[in-house]
Write a structure and sequence with these properties.
Elements lengths: L5 H40 L35 H5 L14 H20 L4
InterPro entries: Prepilin_pept_A24_N, Prepilin_peptidase/N-MTase
GO biological process, one term: signal peptide processing
Pfam families: A24_N_bact
Length: 123
C-alpha cells in the first residue's frame, strides 16, 4: 500500500478539524432550533399568535461566547487553534469556554486521519 505524503496527512487533519467545528455548531444550535420550531407550532395550534424571535439557524448569528454572547473574532474561531490561543476563555468576559469544542474538533481531526490511514487517498 502506498503511504500518503505528509502534506496529505496535514490537509486531511485540517479538514477533519473544520468538520468537527461544524459538528459543534450542529450540536449546540440544533436543540435550540428544534425548541423554537416546537414552540412556534404549539403557539399556532393554540392560536396564541406569533412571537417574534431573532433569526437563529446553523449560519446566523455568527459564533459567539456562550456566556456573554459577544461575537467571536474570526481568528479566535479557528478550529482548535482559537481555543488554545485564548486558553479556553472568552476574549470579552474571560469566562471559561467549554472544553467540548476542542475535544469534538480534535476527535473529528483524528477520525479523518484514521480514515486516511485505513483507506488511503485513492479508492
Amino acid at each position: 500500500m502506498h503511504h500518503p505524503p505528509l502534506i496529505a496527512w496535514l490537509i486531511i487533519f485540517l479538514i477533519g478539524l473544520c468538520l468537527g467545528s461544524f459538528l459543534n455548531v450542529v450540536i449546540t444550535r440544533l436543540p435550540v432550533m428544534l425548541m423554537r420550531r416546537w414552540r412556534h407550532e404549539a403557539r399556532a395550534a393554540l392560536e396564541l399568535g406569533d412571537e417574534h424571535a431573532p433569526r437563529f439557524n446553523l449560519a446566523t448569528p455568527g459564533s459567539m461566547c456562550p456566556r456573554c454572547e459577544t461575537p467571536i473574532a474570526w481568528h479566535d474561531n479557528l478550529p482548535l487553534i482559537g481555543w488554545i490561543k485564548r486558553r479556553g476563555h472568552c476574549a470579552a468576559c474571560q469566562k471559561t469556554i467549554s472544553i467540548q469544542y476542542p475535544l469534538v474538533e480534535m476527535a473529528a481531526g483524528l477520525l479523518a486521519l484514521v480514515v486516511l490511514a485505513l483507506h488511503g487517498l485513492y479508492p
